[in-house]
Amino acid sequence: MGSKYCLFPAAQAARSKPRLKVMVIPPIPIAPDIPVDPRSMGSVTAQAPLAKLTTLRVGGSADYLILPKTPQQLLFVLNWGQEKGLPITLLGAGSNLLISDQGLPGLVICTRALRHSEFDPITGQVIAAAGEPWSSLAWKAARQGLKGFEWTIGIPGTVGGAVVMNAGAHGGETADLLIETEVVSPNGAIAILKPEDLGFRYRTSKLQGSNLIVTTATFQLSPGYDPAEIKAATATDLKSRRETQPYHLPNCGSVFRNPPGFDATGQAHSAGRLIQQAGLKGYQIGQAQISTLHANFIVNLGGAKASDVLALIRHTQSVIYHQHGIKLETEVKIIGDFDTGNFEAQSEG
């Protein structure tokens, strides 16, 4: 495969170190005012609508939005936001995310333009930049005869978000395949983190709520398979998803985590099954509806507001708690001001 792709060359040497190595990049001169030089940071959009950047198609505007196209631009943007004292929110594919109708203050950095991937058909290692979509990565791996990414097909997110949230489906999860990830902090410190550093648990990691930003990830797949066989398995998984999940309507993916424990029949609890048994399939507030196809999905029927979606989430949680005494936790990240007086900047995929 040749030399490993590394968004920040200074971090390249750390990959061979057995212990965590952190390097600090010298400060970059920051332009004092908007507009900035697009060659150094990318173009800045003020009062940028965010709904079109989310898979649920809801949410207000960002004070400022930047889509860096290179790692150098990403670093410059982070430095610039720090200098300006702006709250910073990371946005990937915009899946698994509910943004307030009032939008987000400060700077929103969308990493979906940071795309790059390399595959080693001999070792089975895959290196991908944060903005790489899971689905396209799955197809690329299949064409190389690499087994392991089949379950990722149809996940509407990026590599960065998958690492942060430990995305998973069909019994597989990101933590099973990750070798290491490169992260950068807003002040330019770069680190190479191993799975044991990340505290992976069901649909979460230590990266959630931190200010570290995933820039690349390295995965271990199984090499040497017939590409036709892997492509067929990937296509089967995608067909199953399309038949059982509402891909035809805007949605944010699974809304709730599966709660721990078992029901009276000995089956592991399923959020979707609990919601369906409660008779909530098709329940609607405004133009937001609990999917009639899969009860753990909320769909936008056209013109839904983020407040409708949140009201539907809260109603569902209330019904399930009163029926079963189970508190459903959201898998979707809720950010912005929903009349709670709080704003929490989080990273997503």
Give the distance, in angstroms, between the N- and C-terminal Cα atoms.
27 Å
Helical run tally: 9
By helix and strand content, what is the structural category? alpha+beta
Look up the CATH topology of the largest domain: Uridine Diphospho-n-acetylenolpyruvylglucosamine Reductase, domain 3
- CATH architect. name of the largest domain: 2-Layer Sandwich
Order of helices and strands: EHEEHEEEEEHHEEHEEHEHHEEEHE
Percent of residues in helices comes to 10-25%
Inertia-based shape = globular
**CATH hierarchy class name of the largest domain:** Alpha Beta
Mean pLDDT: 86
Total domain modules: 3
- Rg over CA atoms, rounded to whole Å, is 20 Å
Q: What about the largest sheet?
A: 6 strands, antiparallel
Strand content: 15-25%
Summarize this structure as a short list of keywords or feature phrases.
4-stranded mixed β-sheet; Uridine Diphospho-n-acetylenolpyruvylglucosamine Reductase, domain 3; Uridine Diphospho-n-acetylenolpyruvylglucosamine Reductase, domain 1; Uridine Diphospho-n-acetylenolpyruvylglucosamine Reductase, domain 2; 349 residues; 6-stranded antiparallel β-sheet; disordered N terminus; 3 domains; alpha+beta; 9 helices
Describe this structure in words.
α3 (134-143) runs antiparallel to α7 (227-244). The longest helix is centred in the C-terminal third of the chain and has 19 residues, at 306-324. It contains nine helices and 17 strands. The strands form five sheets. The protein has a six-stranded antiparallel sheet with strand order 1-12-11-13-8-7. β15 and β16 (298-300) form a beta hairpin. It folds into three domains: 24-110, Uridine Diphospho-n-acetylenolpyruvylglucosamine Reductase, domain 2 (2-Layer Sandwich), CATH 3.30.43; 117-241, 2-Layer Sandwich (Uridine Diphospho-n-acetylenolpyruvylglucosamine Reductase, domain 3), CATH 3.30.465.10; 254-331, UDP-N-acetylenolpyruvoylglucosamine reductase, C-terminal domain (Uridine Diphospho-n-acetylenolpyruvylglucosamine Reductase, domain 1, Alpha-Beta Complex), CATH 3.90.78.10. Helix content is 25%, strand content 21%. The protein is α+β, with helices and mostly antiparallel strands and 349 residues long.
